[in-house]
Write a structure and sequence with these properties.
Layout (H helix, E strand, L loop, with lengths): L6 H17 L2 H8 L7 H9 L2 H4 L12 H13 L6 H15 L2 H13 L4 E3 L15 E5 L2 E12 L6 E8 L2 E7 L6 E6 L7 E11 L4 E2 L5 H37 L1 E2 L2 E2 L4 H30 L6 H24 L10 H15 L2 H14 L3
Helix pairs in contact: 1-3, 1-5, 5-8, 6-7, 6-8, 8-9, 8-10, 8-11, 9-10, 10-11, 10-12
Length: 373
């Protein structure tokens, strides 16, 4: 693969990074900490106005036709600023899936407004009683006038501010994905508190009746749609994590150069230098595996193994780097008025979101065991 960033990737990264640097200050993040929903509407609107939200969506929904590589470049910059916007859930996962599998009406009603920033979408995937979103416990029964949904989705990113949820549900013919509005009768959205105090919610569905035109694609496509969303969600989360870790490590290295103890910078002590060196290797590992998985997705190549490897590095290395950042900063790393603790919380959130490193290694092991020698 070619690790050289495309011109579009560089341009979008520069544009996004500039907007984030202007808006996402430490004071701004402190304001969001006390907000009911930790969603930076000002940043979201600025990204929409600049064309960042729609840039990496298909032209059929008003985008510029770029793809997952450019989306990852945007997510890296959002990670560097620990930006409180649901770009991954709304644009990459939900709007992207509607653009790929939806009808013309669904594209114009939901994906196009999402690309313009006027509507926020959310992928409601996780459940307490199922560890595979492609095999959900949530049920959908086909009736004479449409579908009836029952179930609960947890830790839905952007749920409190979302205008639409993509909901996988089990049917008699297999898994299907439905478009559910928060205002539909029987839908209850409850805010949930996560590690990074993000804008996250629980979505309960009790006899929610929706028409046939709210089915995304077909029932036969349902599992493929969910796996499409999951692959891009995992790679996108790894990209955001890379941005978080890369920026946090840079901040920590700078602190180690400036912090004087025993008449010398603490970075000159071997133990500190080794922690930073290990962190540097970890961050480069996240970068390498992220772009390998993104490249294969963009090229339409099989991603089995590549996505799990990227998830493993983003989660496992994320844990180590996050703790290195706090340890090197000392007490300052736990000070809520200092930026460092936000990077720690963001890294831990992505670690938990991606799943344990052990789980990814088990998946990789199962794939290797099933591959003929």
């Amino acid at each position: 693969m070619d690790f050289t960033l495309t011109e579009a990737q560089q341009d979008l990264a520069g544009l996004t990074g500039g907007i984030v640097a202007d808006i996402v200050t430490n004071d701004r993040l402190r304001e969001l900490d006390s907000a009911e929903d930790r969603f930076d509407r000002k940043l979201w609107d600025a990204l929409a106005t600049a064309g960042v939200l729609g840039a990496a969506l298909p032209e059929s929904v008003g985008g510029d036709g770029f793809g997952i590589l450019e989306q990852c470049s945007i997510l890296i910059e959002l990670g560097r600023g620990v930006a409180a916007v649901p770009y991954l859930s709304s644009i990459v996962m939900a709007a992207g899936a509607i653009a790929e599998f939806g009808s013309d009406t669904q594209r114009s009603e939901w994906a196009a407004p999402a690309a313009a920033g006027s509507k926020i979408l959310a992928a409601a995937l996780a459940e307490e009683l199922a560890d595979d979103p492609a095999a959900p416990v949530t049920r959908a029964e086909h009736t004479a006038d449409g579908w009836t949904l029952n179930g609960t989705k947890i830790v839905v990113d952007g749920a409190p501010v979302a205008d639409l949820f993509l909901v996988p549900a089990a049917t008699d013919a297999g898994t299907a994905v439905f478009l559910v509005r928060p205002g539909d009768a029987g839908v209850i959205v409850t805010r949930q508190q996560t590690t990074d105090f993000g804008c996250t919610g629980l979505v309960e569905l009790s006899d929610v009746r929706i028409a046939d035109d709210r089915l995304l694609g077909s029932v036969a496509q349902g599992a493929d749609i969910v796996n499409w969303i999951l692959a891009r969600g995992a790679v996108g989360s790894s990209a955001f994590q890379f941005g978080v870790l890369d920026q946090a490590l840079k901040m920590t290295a700078e602190y180690a150069r400036e912090r004087i103890q025993f008449d010398r910078p603490i970075g000159s002590f071997q133990a500190v230098a080794q922690r930073l060196a290990d962190g540097y290797i970890d961050v480069k590992g996240v970068r390498l595996t992220l772009w390998q998985a993104a490249f294969r997705l963009a090229a339409g190549l099989p991603v089995d193994g590549a996505v799990e490897t990227a998830k493993f590095w983003a989660a496992d290395a994320g844990h180590r780097v996050a703790h290195t950042v706090v340890h090197v900063h000392g007490g300052v790393g736990l000070d809520e008025d200092h930026p460092t603790h936000r990077y720690f919380l963001a890294a831990k959130r992505q670690e938990f979101l991606l799943g344990s490193g052990t789980d990814q290694l088990r998946r990789l092991g199962a794939q290797l065991a099933a591959t003929p020698a």
